[in-house]
Design a protein that fits this description.
The complex is a heterodimer. By secondary structure, chain A is mostly beta strands. Helices cover 7% and strands 44% of the residues of chain A. Among the domains of chain B are: 72-176, PAS domain (Beta-Lactamase), CATH 3.30.450; 361-507, 2-Layer Sandwich (Alpha-Beta Plaits); 537-553 and 576-766, Alpha-Beta Barrel (TIM Barrel). In chain B, strands 19-20-22-23-24-25-26-27 form an 8-stranded mixed beta barrel. In chain B, helix 10 crosses helix 11 (396-413). Chain B is rod-shaped. Residues 509-514 of chain B have low confidence and may be disordered. Classes of the chains: A mainly beta, B alpha+beta. The complex binds copper (II) ion. Residues 89-90, 125, 127-128, 131 of chain A line the site of copper (II) ion.
Chain lengths: 211, 774
């Protein structure tokens, strides 16, 4: 799903931009060498001259979980929070990048939430403590998140000088920014991150259905 | 003393045994209690510790849960998320109130204290307990006991604030103070204290102990910092102690008071002591009462025994309850009766003559002594005539029956006030109270009259006569023995004189002064040769010749004329003057015999020896010298001895008789029949001749009774090899009877009266034996 989105996004860029373009592939692993999933890889142009794409995204509430766990959007994007569960949720964020609250609701809220400031946003549900999701709002259109194998692939990057930014919701420390050159040839990097294990929050079984 | 100690012993044994049993019970109970208390304490302490640990854990969980719930509160989280410190502070204050935490702190993820109910300081500082943060980062939360800078101890719970990512920590502090300790103490039953040890010093941060004990605790724990197996003394109590670590330098001290644990057992012990004391008191009283019940009958018995010991047999032994002592008392009473009756019997034996039933000599003497000293009285002594001969001739059974009969008669004839006693053998005595000479005389005569009636035993008529001597008190003597002796003396005199009754005062024995004058007269008479010897011829009935003569002393008194021997010989015997008369008599008779022998007249003279003579140790030598001096054969002299002379000192008398017999002297028993000597006794003596007393010979021809006695006496004497002499022969009929009955020798007026020595040869020459049949 994420991959297909990224591909479609790349196709869009491909259609509207110059013909030549580079690509970036990252492999993210822990210092112990284990591949890291859901790491966000962002390639930011050093010179801010990137067009804004008011893209949209969707974070569903399904089976008392927020899906997906990590979402990356460009600044100004609007995100829909459709509720697919037969009961209500109460979404909130206290993050400085985007503070909002969608009080108990069912179905799809009337308005999507616009994330107009770059930064990380932690999402939770006030009535289901274990539900969590993260949105990273970035000022670059070139981003991807690692799959289960720790791999992320970004295409259609105009060659140039970029800053590589790495992020993970459970990172123990913010990894340092590094500069990379994107050329015609695909760029590949192995990256390491210090990630805390995901604490399994207690999620009660759905007992109500049985009654 | 003994009685008391018996009582004490009973009490002491009873109470002592009780005390012993109680002591054992007490010791056992105390020991068991001690062990139970110890085990119970251990159990309580370990259970209390477990409960305490559980409570602390539970408490911690509750606090954590509460903190977690609080930290999840949306509004709370929202407020924390604002990062506005005054807001945060008011929020945590509010929520602290909700949850009941006394201290609340908000800590940033990087350990900065960003809000704090304890201080309003605006400057940021680090959270003071980074170790709690460290634990919470890995475990999600943490709890610990920490002392804050206000000095107070808190149980701090540190939980994250998740939104949903951890945006901060909130620390909630619950005050650990005395109330906390008391609450927990109320649940586990132990004293709970939280202490801080830094170095050697101990500070109490919270305690369920009150006032003085709380302040004494640090000191007590310091002293016993290492060894908590011992009891810790705090105040007036001792505490068994367990110490649990609570954190850095912090410990919880759990304590159980030994005294409180012992309290129920103490009350049990108190109850036991009360029972022991009550038991001892009750037992003491009971055993004293029992001991009294045992001892007081014993005392009564002892008193009864003392009465009996003192001779009081009349009072019966008190009757006691029918237990063992009661039976003893009954036995004792029977014993008293037995002793009393036996004493009665012994008294009877002691005071009564068994043969006649009359009082005996002892009783008689006592009766005399019991008379008042100023009361005149008379003592009369009766001797039966011819009793010895009757006894010998007819046997002892007859003699005894005769005595019994005589006793009976005497008892009958006497007035009630007169005491009749049998002194010995055939001699009876009468105590005549208040009697003078005349009344004594009349009583004595009535006795003799009564005795004159013949006594018939087994169809045999026995003529029993008697002689009575009377001594008067106080004239004749002051004491009973003297009076009896003098009465006997008078009785003998009466017997010799055939007068029936004689008074001691009437036979010449007068006052001591008179005695002395009489002795003087006799001495003068001896010197002036006023004593003469008369000879009474003895006729040998077989050869019809005069073969002997009895030498009889006479006193040719210048004033009184010729005095018969009865007038002075008894007195000479009594005073011992006889010892001077007898040698003179022996010398005179020996010289006369030697003279007659030269003249061709063969006469064997008989000389009377008194008791004193016979007992004189010089007698044998004197006799030997006498025959040597006069060249007489020993069998040319005959010595006559009375039975009574033999009785004084039988052993010495017998020894002298033996020596005299060995020298060859003829020995003769005089007055046979008046005394007590039996023939069986006389037979053992070395005598050759027996002279039957004249009282038996008188009218022997007329009295069949006397004849029988004399006949049997002669027969017995002959059987024993003795020559028999009959004294007092008065008639030719008697002489003929004696000759017929084979009597050996006769003497008496019927043959010749005593005559001077010079007349004898002529009389013998002129004498012709009277005509009696042969
Ligand atoms: Cu929800």
């Amino acid at each position: 799903m994420i991959r297909s989105q990224a591909v479609s996004l790349a196709a869009l860029l491909l259609l509207g931009g110059p013909v030549y373009a580079g690509s970036f592939e990252a492999y993210v692993a822990t210092t112990a060498g284990k591949p890291v999933e859901d790491s966000v890889v962002v390639v930011e142009p050093v010179v801010k001259a990137v067009a804004r794409h008011h893209s949209t995204a969707t974070i569903e509430q399904r089976d008392r979980e927020l899906v997906p766990y990590v979402t990356i959007v460009q600044t100004g994007a609007a995100i829909d929070f459709p509720n697919r569960d037969p009961f209500k949720h109460h979404l909130y964020s206290f993050s400085p990048a985007k503070r909002f609250e969608i009080k108990l609701y069912a179905g799809k809220p009337a308005q999507p939430v616009v994330f107009d400031k770059p930064g990380e946003v932690a999402l939770g549900c006030n009535i289901h403590d274990w539900m969590e999701a993260y949105v990273l709002v970035v000022d670059s259109p070139y981003f991807a998140k690692t799959d289960g194998n720790g791999r992320a692939f970004i295409t259609n990057i105009p060659p140039g000088h970029y800053r590589l930014r790495l992020w993970h919701p459970r990172q123990n420390s913010e990894p340092p920014l590094r500069e990379i050159e994107i050329g015609a040839a695909p760029t590949q990097l192995n990256l390491a991150m210090d990630i805390a294990p995901r604490i399994a929050k207690q999620k009660p079984p759905v007992e109500a259905d049985h009654y | 003393m003994i009685v008391r100690s018996l009582q004490y012993r009973i009490v002491i044994v009873f109470v002592g045994l009780l005390l012993l049993v109680m002591a054992i019970v007490l010791a056992l109970v105390t020991r068991t209690n001690g062990r139970i208390v110890f085990a119970e304490m251990e159990r309580e302490l370990s259970a209390g510790t477990q409960v305490f640990t559980r409570l602390i854990e539970q408490n911690q969980r509750q606090l954590e849960t509460a903190a977690t719930v609080l930290s999840a509160d949306f509004a709370f989280r929202e407020a924390i998320a604002t990062q506005d410190r005054p807001t945060m502070r008011s929020v945590i204050r509010n929520h602290g109130l909700r949850i009941g935490a006394q201290a609340m702190m908000v800590i940033s993820p990087d350990g900065q204290l960003i809000a704090d109910t304890q201080s309003n300081s605006a400057e940021l500082r680090l959270f003071p307990f980074p170790d709690l943060l460290l634990v919470a980062e890995s475990a999600g939360k943490s709890t610990g006991f920490r002392q804050m800078k206000d000095g107070r101890l808190y149980q701090i719970v540190l939980v994250p604030i998740l939104a949903p990512k951890r945006i901060a920590w909130v620390a909630m502090g619950f005050l650990v103070d005395d109330r906390w300790a008391q609450e927990l103490s109320g649940m586990n039953g132990l004293a709970i204290s939280v202490i801080r040890r830094s170095g050697t010093s101990v500070a109490v941060l919270a305690s369920s102990l009150d006032g003085p004990k709380r302040s004494a605790l640090p000191g007590a724990l310091t002293r016993l910092s290492n060894d908590l197996s011992q009891a810790v003394p705090i105040g007036d109590e001792h505490y068994q102690t367990v110490q649990l670590p609570l954190g850095k330098e912090l410990s919880v001290v759990l304590q159980r008071s030994i005294e409180q644990a012992e309290a129920p057992f103490r009350s049990l012990q108190m109850a036991l002591w009360t029972i022991v004391l009550a038991g001892v008191v009750i037992f003491s009283i009971g055993s004293v009462m029992l001991a009294r019940r045992i001892v007081s009958p014993v005392n009564e018995l002892a008193a009864a025994a003392r009465r009996i010991e003192a001779g009081n047999y009349i009072e019966p032994v008190p009757s006691l309850p029918p237990d063992e002592i009661g039976q003893l008392a009954m036995s004792f009473d029977r014993m008293r009766e037995q002793v009393a009756s036996r004493e009665q019997k012994i008294l009877k034996l002691a005071y009564e003559d068994t043969l006649t039933g009359l009082p005996n000599r002892t009783r008689f003497l006592e009766a005399f002594n019991q008379l008042p000293a100023d009361c005149p009285c008379a003592i009369a002594v009766l001797n039966l005539d011819r009793f010895a001969m009757i006894n010998n001739a007819l046997g002892h059974p007859i003699g005894d029956r005769l005595l019994r009969e005589v006793g009976l008669r005497l008892g009958l004839v006497m007035p009630g006030s007169v005491i009749v006693a049998r002194l010995w053998a055939d001699e009876f005595a009468f105590l005549l109270e208040g009697a003078d000479q005349a009344s004594a005389m009349s009583i004595a005569e009535s006795v003799l009259v009564k005795l004159r009636d013949p006594i018939t035993l087994d169809g045999q008529r026995l003529d029993v006569g008697g002689s009575i001597g009377i001594a008067l008190y106080p004239g004749d003597g002051q004491d009973a023995p003297t009076l009896i002796r003098r009465a006997e003396f008078a009785m003998n005199a009466a017997k010799r004189r055939h007068v029936g009754v004689a008074f001691a005062s009437g036979i010449g024995e007068e006052t001591q002064h008179e005695h002395l004058s009489l002795i003087g007269e006799m001495r003068e008479a001896l010197a002036r040769q006023e004593f003469l010897v008369y000879y009474q011829p003895k006729l040998d009935l077989a050869s019809r010749k005069i073969t002997g003569a009895e030498a009889l002393i006479r006193w040719q008194h210048p004033e009184q004329g010729l005095v018969p021997p009865i007038g002075f010989i008894p007195f000479a015997e009594q005073t011992g003057f006889i010892r001077e008369i007898t040698p003179w008599l022996l010398e005179t008779v020996a010289a006369q015999t030697a003279q007659w022998s030269e003249e061709g007249l063969s006469i064997v003279p008989s000389i009377n020896l008194s008791t004193l003579d016979l007992l004189n140790t010089g007698l044998v030598d004197q006799m030997r010298g006498l025959i040597e001096l006069h060249s007489l054969p020993a069998n040319g002299l005959c010595l006559e001895i009375t039975e009574s002379a033999l009785m004084e000192d039988p052993a010495l008398a017998l020894a002298h008789l033996g020596e005299l017999a060995a020298l060859g002297f003829k020995l003769s028993i005089d007055d046979y029949g008046t005394g007590q000597a039996s023939l069986a006794y006389l037979k053992t003596l070395p005598v050759h001749e027996l002279k039957i007393d004249q009282t038996f010979i008188l009218s022997v021809a007329d009295s069949p009774k006397n004849a029988a006695i004399v006949r049997s006496t002669i027969a017995l004497c002959h059987a024993l090899g003795l020559t028999v002499v009959a004294e007092g022969v008065e008639t030719s009929a008697d002489l003929a009877w004696l000759a017929d009955n084979e009597c050996d020798i006769a003497q008496g007026y019927g043959i010749a009266r005593p005559m001077p020595a010079d007349d004898l040869p002529d009389w013998i020459a002129a004498y012709s034996v009277p005509a009696f049949a042969t």
